[in-house]
Design brief:
Layout (H helix, E strand, L loop, with lengths): L7 H10 L17 E10 L5 H7 L14 E7 L5 E5 L2 H7 L3 H4 L3 E6 L13 H8 L3 E10 L6 H6 L15 E3 L2 E4 L9 H11 L5 E5 L14 E6 L4 E6 L2 E6 L10 H8 L7 E4 L8 H6 L3 E5 L3 H13 L6 E4 L3 H16 L5 E4 L20 E4 L6 E4 L33 E8 L3 H16 L9 E9 L2 E9 L2 H4 L28
Parallel strand pairs: 7-8, 12-13, 12-17, 13-14, 17-18
Antiparallel strand pairs: 1-4, 1-5, 2-3, 2-4, 6-7, 8-9, 10-11, 15-16, 18-20, 19-20
């Protein structure tokens, strides 16, 4: 790995501050990472002139995150009896603060680039030299004692890994609540504990580091995966925040991907207040619950009982029970049943929601009951406006559930009403090049709905790169009438006006 710079002075500084190297380490030894680096520093004697002195040092200060700005130092006798400045670390500062008189001994030192030499004024900028001559600043040689916490993750890990593994050092992770999720390649597995521990040490907001032991869904139809805790607390329960909502779940038992937040928000923005959305593979509710906050009626389904359990908790936690209803069944069954049950509910006495207005009360603003504005009324739509199918590996196979799903319900849509057939947001993987993926995806959609779809019929969104040869897309299209009204399936949809007896359709389903 070539880390050289075009500037020799930068290369010198990089070598000077690099950590000790130990490429046979298998268990992290923090005490190994200690080093004394001789640098130059500007001791500030006139704190009131600090801003001007810092400006005089611009372009010549030490460019290291840990030592940018100033270092607190104090004079102490060395073992040889000489007075020298030493770093006042947090522990020493806390001890000295108990005795205010001792704090007078503390000075601020501005670390300078190694090219500045105190005994050679030709290396010192004229503006800084003026402060030296006025006795506001002393230029000194300073022994900077560096320890494990003074180096970042990359510096520590690259001082441990073998040289042949330095080209692609694992540096990325996905943060879910306080859990960092890494996906280590096989070559780095012998160093997994060290990598996990260093990630933990260098990120105070992380409590647990896990490694994905297999691809999502390989051994589970619930999109979970085997994981190994590399460092930190042995727990997988998390609380995550997304789209202004709070989610709790067990990361080991449900599917969650923080990298999809942008995609979640993009699709949620297409939902309008008062619309109805069917979230077929809803997980713990990253689409459904923020949509419910927008007063969108959402029927959210997931086959995984743990996801269903977490989703119910998240619905209550985010107070969207008026608009979001959780379901736990096969996605294909859910599509076919929910279409009919939504219509039945819309026609029943429970097909409307009353939302009281938000009123700010104060001592000077007391409103009597008869002065309160009436509640807003939201009527459950008879048809869904959107179907969300976020199961990229197999969601396309569930499209056959739409064949004939609205047969017998034609009069609910154009041209009999102004209502259009629903929009389907289908997430799907494809391993082809971007230009070739679109026709391929259209062919797969066509296969399952038994109707030819072209690239002109589908809007494509490149969601994210999964691997060098695999991308995730969102294919958005309106359900064709030739599909929705095909065959005999669905003709019973409007025959029975009574509401389904399936739990969840009773009046209490819409009470938070």
């Amino acid at each position: 790995m070539d880390t050289s710079s075009s500037n020799p002075e930068d290369d010198m500084a990089s070598r000077l501050f690099s950590p000790p190297v130990q490429r046979t380490m298998r268990i992290l030894d923090r005490s190994f990472f200690r080093k004394t680096v001789p640098i130059s520093g500007a001791i500030v004697h006139t704190p009131s002139k600090m801003e001007a002195i810092r400006k005089a040092c611009e372009g010549n200060m030490l460019d290291r995150v840990k030592f940018k700005g100033t270092i607190l130092v104090k004079l102490e006798k060395s073992p040889g009896g000489r007075l020298e400045y030493v770093h006042v670390r947090k522990e020493m500062k806390a001890e000295m603060e108990q005795d205010p008189e001792r704090m007078h001994e503390v000075r601020k030192l501005i670390p300078l680039h190694p090219r500045i030499r105190p005994n050679d004024h030709s290396t010192v900028p004229l503006a800084l030299l003026a402060f030296v001559e006025s006795k506001d600043v002393d230029l000194v040689l300073y022994k900077l004692k560096m320890e494990y916490e003074d180096w970042d993750y990359y510096e520590i890990v690259t001082s441990i890994l073998p040289e042949d593994l330095l080209e692609e050092v694992p540096s990325g992770y996905t943060l879910t609540g306080d859990i960092a999720h890494v996906n280590l390649r096989e070559a780095y597995l012998p160093y997994k504990q060290i990598i996990g521990q260093v990630i933990l040490d260098k990120n105070p907001n992380i409590k647990t580091v896990i490694n994905k032991a297999e691809e999502v869904g390989v051994s589970s139809e619930f999109r979970t995966f085997d994981m190994e805790i590399l460092a930190g607390e042995p727990k997988t329960e998390v609380e995550a925040f997304e789209s202004g909502c709070r989610f709790r779940f067990d990361f080991a038992k449900v599917y969650w991907n923080s990298r999809l937040e942008t995609e979640h928000n993009r699709i949620i923005k297409t939902f309008k207040e008062g619309e109805a959305v069917a979230d077929v593979m809803a997980g713990v509710g990253p689409f459904a619950i923020p949509a419910g906050k927008k007063k969108v009626f959402v029927w959210a389904n997931d086959l995984n009982p743990e996801s269903y359990k977490s989703m119910i908790g998240n619905i209550k936690r985010n107070k969207v029970g008026d608009f979001v209803m959780a379901h736990n069944e096969d996605g294909r069954d859910f599509i076919q049943r929910s279409v009919k049950d939504l219509y039945k509910l819309s026609q029943s006495k429970w097909g409307k929601i009353f939302v009281p207005p938000k009123i700010k009360y104060s001592k000077s603003n007391s409103i009597s009951l008869d002065q309160r504005p009436p509640p807003a009324v939201y009527y459950v739509p008879p048809t869904f406006n959107h179907f969300v199918m976020n199961l990229p590996a197999t969601a396309v196979e569930f499209l056959d559930a739409f064949v004939g799903v609205y047969t017998g319900m034609e009069r609910l849509f154009e041209p009999y009403t102004k209502t259009k057939l629903p929009i389907i947001h289908l997430h799907i993987f494809d391993a082809r090049e971007y230009e070739d993926a679109h026709p391929s995806i259209c062919q797969r959609i066509s296969k399952y709905i038994n109707y030819k779809m072209t690239v002109e019929d589908v809007e494509f969104r490149d969601v994210r790169l999964i691997s060098p040869k695999k991308k995730m897309y969102c294919a958005t299209f309106r359900l064709p009438p030739e599909v929705a009204f095909a065959g005999e399936e669905g003709k019973k949809g409007m025959e029975d006006d009574s509401c389904s007896k399936i739990p969840g359709l009773e009046a209490s389903a819409w009470v938070s």
